[in-house]
Design goal:
Blueprint lengths: L9 H22 L1 H6 L22 H7 L13 E4 L9 E4 L1 H17 L7 E4 L8 H13 L2 E4 L5 H11 L3 E4 L1 H13 L11 E4 L13 H9 L3 E8 L4 E4 L7 E2 L5 E6 L12 E7 L10 E7 L1 E2 L11 E2 L4 E2 L4 E3 L2 E3 L1 H8 L5 E10 L5 E9 L6 H13 L4 E5 L1 H8 L10 E3 L7
Parallel strand pairs: 3-4, 3-5, 5-6, 6-7, 18-21, 19-20
Antiparallel strand pairs: 1-2, 7-8, 9-14, 10-11, 11-12, 12-15, 13-14, 16-17, 18-19
Helix pairs in contact: 4-5, 6-7, 7-8, 9-10
């Protein structure tokens, strides 16, 4: 098994990526109606390195939503898979993939799972959707096949079926959203299942952060490992990237796979942030044939790190996603991201599940309602929750108690593919 070029020197990685820049630009200008028009007045021959990309305008989610057919670079007979984004930050966008694109996805996940200490001796238990036009489940499946490891496709939900699968197949690695691990732990406790005796040794955690900005496990991560002694690996990915940043054993950020992406971290003026500053992840695809993107702003904000990792990889790393640009909340003079609310709620005993709902109030400022599912007597509980918020954030949102099952329906409705904790009803947000 090969680790790819992540283990090569920083100089070798830069030389590789610089060499890809002219190739990428020539391809999109010759095959994408969008980029042919967007770059018409730019001499792309002058753009030869990653740093030179700053001479180009960025691509936004609004561009994709309004003009996505113009991004397609191949004829219909080369398209073999149609994928749709989750629509977390607006209307979903359809992406297309060729045979080469699916092979690229397989390589990405193969390298990602190797990074997370995987091998062909493992059996991966997939608690993710492989249908509903979803890219991630298909990518995991293809990557694990390339690794030569075992796969059991179970899908999300249904704790009884998950444990029946664990008993029957003895998988070693789970692939799931981390909050579902809490549900499995609760099911195990109710049904007297000894988690220590299961075959599971680790979990690839998708969709939700499990670490704080200092790389310590956050409240959700701590809850899991306190009850289930398994190794957690965080991963960050998106349909637009067609790639992933996955943690190694060190747990010090998700590693870039340099063969897949060129990454910039930009401020609000589309300029590179200084070392140690938060920036918006902005990507340029390497090797995408069907629908490549150049300088695409993901909306995700994080810190990044360039020093060599103790695992031996020289590729840059990203920290936990602090928030999404369009999910930033201005509440009573305080700037918040939803994750800061989640971290507090995950640490309060008695809170079974929750949804954070943001709306525009009568004076056109942000308002927050936290809908909480619980099985406790609510007398005094609301004050307790608000005291937690004030202690950590200085402000406290409105609280609305609901039945735990009703919250679960909101989080996991049939219309969505990812568990939903954040509902944005504001007037002036990007849709």
């Amino acid at each position: 098994m090969t680790e790819g070029i992540s283990v090569k020197s920083k100089e070798d990685i830069k030389k590789y990526q610089d060499g890809k820049v002219p190739e990428i630009l020539n391809y999109v200008v010759n095959n994408s109606k969008f980029y042919n028009k967007r770059f018409r007045d730019i001499d792309i021959k002058k753009i030869k390195t990653v740093e030179d990309l700053e001479m180009l305008p960025v691509t936004t989610k609004e561009d994709l939503q309004k003009k996505y057919p113009d991004f397609i670079c191949v004829k219909k007979d080369k398209i073999i898979d149609y994928i749709t984004t989750s629509g977390t930050l607006g209307n979903p966008v359809t992406f297309v993939a060729t045979e080469n694109d699916l092979n690229r996805l397989a390589l990405n996940e193969y390298l990602s799972f190797l990074c997370a200490n995987g091998s062909n001796q493992d059996i991966y238990h997939l608690m993710v959707t492989l249908d509903k036009r979803f890219m991630a489940g298909l990518a995991y499946f293809l990557g694990i096949r390339k690794m030569g490891a075992g796969i059991v496709r179970v899908g999300p939900g249904n704790p009884e079926l998950q444990f029946d699968t664990i008993n029957r197949v003895a998988p070693t690695v789970l692939v799931t959203i981390p909050s579902f691990l809490i549900k499995l732990i609760e099911y195990a406790e109710i049904n007297n299942i000894d988690l220590k005796k299961t075959s599971i040794k680790s979990a690839i955690c998708i969709g939700e952060p499990i670490r704080d900005k200092d790389f310590n496990l956050n409240k959700l991560g701590q809850k899991i490992v306190n009850k289930w002694n398994i190794k957690l690996f965080s991963t960050y990915a998106s349909t637009e990237m067609g790639a992933a940043f996955t943690e190694c054993q060190q747990g010090k950020g998700g590693h870039l796979i340099p063969e897949m992406l060129i990454v910039e971290f930009l401020d609000e003026n589309n300029k590179p942030v200084k070392k140690g500053e938060m920036g918006e992840i902005t990507i340029t695809n390497i090797g995408v044939e069907g629908m490549p993107l150049v300088r695409f702003k993901t909306g995700d904000i994080c810190y990044h790190y360039t020093e060599k990792c103790k695992c031996g990889r020289s590729s840059l790393r990203i920290g936990p996603i602090i928030g999404r640009k369009n999910q930033m909340i201005k509440y009573k003079g305080t700037t918040l991201f939803p994750q800061s609310l989640y971290d507090i709620l995950d640490d309060i005993p008695g809170v079974k599940n929750y949804v954070v709902e943001v709306d525009t109030n009568s004076i056109d400022t942000d308002d927050i309602i936290v809908k909480i599912g619980c099985d406790m007597n609510i007398d005094g509980f609301e004050k307790n929750i608000k005291d937690h918020f004030r202690a950590k954030l200085r402000v406290a949102p409105s609280i609305n108690f609901m039945d735990e099952k009703e919250i679960d329906k909101i989080q996991n409705s049939d219309e969505i593919r990812k568990s939903k904790k954040f509902i944005d009803k504001r007037k002036n947000t990007f849709t």
